[in-house]
Amino acid sequence: MKIEIQDQYIESFKEFLTRKGLRVTNQRMAIFGAAFSCDNHFTAEDLLEQARKLDDSVSRATVYRALPLLTESSLIREVDVGKDYKYYTANKDVKTFQAQVICMDCEKIFEIDAPFMEWYGKTVAEKLLLSVEDQRLQVSARCDQLKLKGECNRVFAK
Amino acid sequence: MKIEIQDQYIESFKEFLTRKGLRVTNQRMAIFGAAFSCDNHFTAEDLLEQARKLDDSVSRATVYRALPLLTESSLIREVDVGKDYKYYTANKDVKTFQAQVICMDCEKIFEIDAPFMEWYGKTVAEKLLLSVEDQRLQVSARCDQLKLKGECNRVFAK
DNA sequence: GACTCAATTGAGACTCAATAACAATATAGC
DNA sequence: GCTATATTGTTATTGAGTCTCAATTGAGTC
User: Fold this and answer.
1) What pLDDT is recorded for position A153?
2) CA distance linking residue A95 with residue A92, whole number of Å
């Protein structure tokens, strides 16, 4: 599988590792590359599968060890959808705040721009004299609604 | 341990069970009572511990079986904080939409009114021609910020 | 109050995402 | 290339949540 990733991201991640006194290993770069080759949201297991296509020695444990590094470096972020397992997505060129719209039936996740949220989150936080570290707006919807737009997985997959 | 719960909630839950053709059992009522005796957010394990004070025969499986009933009846609701386990809280007299402010260090959860969210969520959803089933706004903050207000668990617990 | 039968229960086995332990391996600085 | 040590894969383990099934119990009926 051929992967095209902007050099700036690769360098950014290498720099992050070096600055923290961590080593640049084949496995870490394979996992990083896999994360950026995924267009959609992915689970740790998805990431393992993709990373193994780049380096078949990558193990499950190493993926779980790399995930905190990738989130800490802001190259990916967690997307919590209320399931027992976690989703992640690459922070490519996202500028505006995005809300996650989750189909409760087929588990497909849409991210849509919600620029106003930025202001709103800060307003909410001011009530507690807090500075916001992170905020998420999650909207749950039903599959049969998404079907109207022909974008539900089930329309194609089943 | 003495529990005081408004009769209306007890009746409401009994009615919910009966309407669904389910039985009113001691265990279910103990779990219900435990949920309403918790002032704060609680996990399934917390609920088991509390429920056993009211009826020591309550088992873990029964707690997990009762939780969907309690959420379905709108007497409690899930509060997702991005941990591996779930939190719940009783829906006592909450009228307005609330945002969850989570201390990333001590795991304490604050719920604060965010009435504007209701309108905002709908606006966001309209972009996808969806009707909103549920929405949550989560704000992450750091413990040392909460300490300013003297409300962080660690101030008291450690 | 006793009878009946399906709903419910507790105990314990099980699942599965995530983590820990540890010996083997590979990296970065020399 | 050499060395110290960070990192790795393998395997075992954890822990929240689910499932199974025999035993029990609630609620309608007499």
Assistant:
1) 44
2) 9
